[in-house]
Amino acid sequence: MENKKIAVYITIMVAVVFIIGVTLCAKNTMPILQAREIQSPNEKVSPANEKVLIEALSQDQDETLTMVNKEDGANESINYQKMYIEKGNNTSIRNFEIEEKAEAIPVLMYHHLLTKDENPFRSNSAILDVKNFQEQMNILYENNYTTITLYELEQFLLGNLDVPKNTVVITFDDGYLSNIHYAYPILKEYGFVASIFMITHEVHETSEVFNPNVLQYLSYKDMVDTLDVFTYDNHTHNMHRLENGNGYLLTKSSEEIIQDLKINMELTHSPYFAYPYGHYNEETLTILEELGIRMAFTVERGLVKKGDSLLELNRYGIFPNTSLRQFKNIIGLNTRWSILK
Ligand SMILES: [Zn+2]
Questions:
Q1: Which of 57, 130, 324, 329 has the highest Cβ tally under 10 A?
Q2: pTM of this structure
Q3: What is the full DSSP assignment across 46-78?
């Protein structure tokens, strides 16, 4: 009898130690950098706050905010979440000086940025050298390009707003810390605006010191601190994953997708979306429409213009092998004529 009790006790202790170990590993293991658009990240343990959020969403929408992170007791994170939502995404429309109106606009897609020296993953085709980014932004600036917000783009596409001929939209996918560490100061210096499509499941509780050796994501504080340049938009809450080469938006049930996107939208307060890996189908379009997503971006190359399907908007991916000549072509700078001049 006594032996049986001891055996049960030992089993429980081993289970508890195992669970604590797994939890700590999941929290502290530095993720090795993977190009999320290219490789499938391994499944990982969902944070406790996500479960709370899902429960909250299925019960009472208003309670959602205060319930996020409750289990972690991350008051700072909650405060910044509230602050983020109070400040809101930018829905103002600016007055543009227009000599010639834009007919079509390139939407640029960036991901992770590192300097050449920092990048231990040279072969990764999703990591752009900061120097390239700086050069590209400089080309935009020197040629008097205007950058517009997603809200302004929407108004342009709806025919409610004219913008100058040389206009671009700058977007980043996934929500990497490198976007504010490197891109933010450059964009700010040039007076540019941009959008970051967030995998909100990855948002960190607290801000981290930038470390090029690991893949870091933004925190709510980072988001609040950079609203003068960035808007934060949707890239799924936790469906930036692949199953046999197909994105979760293609493989998961409508119920699961709706659940995920509701959380995503609740956390960003944005009606704009980018498809992970560019994967979507007719059913996805129906879901996005039902949820009130007003614009969604693919990874199909091409300009966007009035009359386009607002849930299937093109974007130009900018990669390490994108030459300055190709970049100029994308933004409509006529390189042939500029050489002759
Ligand atoms: Zn992505």
A1: 130
A2: 0.79
A3: PPHHHHHHHHHHHH-GGGHHHHTTGGGT-HHHH
